[in-house]
Amino acid sequence: MYKLSFFVPASHVEDVKSAVFAAGGGRIGAYDHCAWQVPGQGQFRPLEGSQPFMGEAGRVEQVEEWKVELVVADELIRSVVAALKDSHPYETPAYEVWRLEDF
Fold it and tell me: Cα–Cα distances in Å, from 68 out to 43, 54, 60, 95, 103?
């Protein structure tokens, strides 16, 4: 089992979650669409040559984002991360994947 955490702008949080859930993320026992989420403020500065979803190269941007966390079965992690990347509006989405132990 893995834990996937990602950051997404408020405007796209439901679309990205839907794609991740459709790929099999967020299943725990007899439940699906399981996630924990919290709003926050993200910051980034696009560099020259980037194609940012918002903002412009060389200028620091701050945006309302959501941090979403969910579990993913071992055999689905690659397809779930691919769904995240395909549905996310950012050129380079920020995400983390952690292997979980079962106790």
Answer: 17, 20, 23, 9, 24
